[in-house]
Amino acid sequence: MESEELEELRQALERLKQEHRDLDGAINALEESGFANQLELRRMKKKKLVLKDEIARIEDILLPDIIA
Questions:
Q1: More exposed terminus of the chain, fewer Cβ within 10 Å: N or C?
Q2: Which domain of life does the UniProt lineage start with (predicted)?
């Protein structure tokens, strides 16, 4: 994989991680407010899981397992 592609993946990874952190904070704030819309919370949590899966996929590309 070329260095330009790797750099694009690293940048995408950082964006996804930031979005995941932001979503986590929003979920926590909504839950603590006591006025949480359960449907909206489920959607946010599902989006957070999708982000987590995408983060893992990119990390696997950037840091492949080395079989000894």
A1: C
A2: Bacteria
pTM of this prediction exceeds 0.70: yes
Count CA atoms closer than 13 A to 20's CA, side-chain side: 15
Say if residues 32 and 43 touch (Cβ distance below 8 Å): no
Distance CA 22, CA 28 (A): 10
pLDDT at 58: 96
Token pair 């359960």 in the structure block, residue: 38
Per residue in 7-36, pLDDT tens?
A: 999 999 999 999 999 999 999 999 999 888
Instruction: Give the list of residues 6+ apart from residue 57 with CB closer than 8 angstroms, or none.
Output: none
**Contact predicate 16/57, CB 8 Å:** no
